[in-house]
Design a protein that fits this description.
By secondary structure, the protein is an alpha+beta fold. It has a single domain, classed as Acetoacetate decarboxylase-like (Beta Barrel). About 15% of the residues lie in helices and about 55% in strands. The chain starts with a helix and ends in a 19-residue tail after the last helix. This is Acetoacetate decarboxylase family protein. It comes from Aeromicrobium wangtongii. InterPro entries: Acetoacetate_decarboxylase (IPR010451), ADC_dom_sf (IPR023375).
């Protein structure tokens, strides 16, 4: 049980999250429009271009301590709102994973991320279960200096039904808005390599053309709200695609490996 004072303190951290001292490397690329349309859950629609952003970064925060991670974003729209659908996201600890998944509906999984800089050259990876799912390389020689930026992320909150068949209720489309104060902003050219596995099928997104890369440092201020619901039967294929395939994790009858 939390006291009234504790509840108030916790809810301030929940409702006014700040992700500060951020360092984020991103590479934008064009993908196959048909793949984009297939992967976007309703009621989202594709953006003006089939742009996908692969990002790796690290942050400090007022709510989930320090953390590293990365994500795949797909350009999308909802009505008059233009933003990015979070197709996949990885974190290095359970606190940022639980917070973003339960609050915003972000499709987070545990993974290891690394981000390196040597002069104008940047590189980054996301590794899960020994596989480098995402690898970025970038040469960023254009310095834009400090500034401000804003963005919108689309996510879906859903829960599996208790009996394992279908979802517990209709999914909820959320909109997270980010207002960012940037101390560093650089851009240039880059490359992206995606590796698919049965649990993280990033190879469903073909890299048709890389259109640019960027790196930012700064503070991110976020707010989120629920904007629509999606019938549970309609969202079920997307919900099961955002988590590992439980049917392929069957170790029943396999010999147990003992370690000292």
């Amino acid at each position: 049980m939390k006291t009234a004072e504790e509840i108030e303190r916790i809810q301030v951290a929940q409702s006014e999250p700040r992700f500060v001292d951020a360092e984020m490397l991103s590479v934008d690329f064009l993908s196959d429009p048909a793949a984009i349309e297939r992967l976007l859950p309703p009621p989202l629609a594709p953006g003006d271009t089939p742009r996908v952003t692969a990002m790796v970064g690290r942050w400090r925060s007022n709510c989930v301590a320090d953390f590293d991670g990365g994500a795949i974003y797909v350009s999308a729209t909802f009505g008059d709102l233009a933003g990015d659908y979070v197709l996949a996201m990885w974190m290095d600890d359970d606190q940022p994973m639980i917070y973003g998944r339960e609050m915003f509906g972000e499709p987070k999984k545990l993974a290891r991320s690394q981000l390196y800089r040597s002069g104008d050259h940047f590189s980054a990876t996301i590794t899960r279960h020994g596989v480098d799912l995402l690898a970025l390389e970038a040469d960023l020689d254009i310095d834009h200096g400090p500034g401000r930026a804003a963005g919108i992320n689309f996510n879906f909150k859903s829960r599996p039904a208790t009996d394992g068949i279908g979802l517990e209720e209709d999914a909820i489309l959320t909109v997270a808005e980010f207002n960012n104060v940037l101390r560093v902003s650089r851009s240039g050219s880059g490359t992206v390599a995606l590796t698919g596995t049965v649990h993280d099928p990033l190879d469903e997104l073909p890299v048709v053309e890389v259109i640019g890369a960027r790196f930012i440092e700064g503070d991110l201020h976020a707010s989120a709200r629920s904007v629509a619901t999606v019938p549970m039967a309609d969202f079920l294929p997307y919900a099961l695609g955002r988590v590992d395939d439980w049917s392929l994790l069957n170790t029943e009858g396999s010999p147990r490996i003992l370690t000292s």
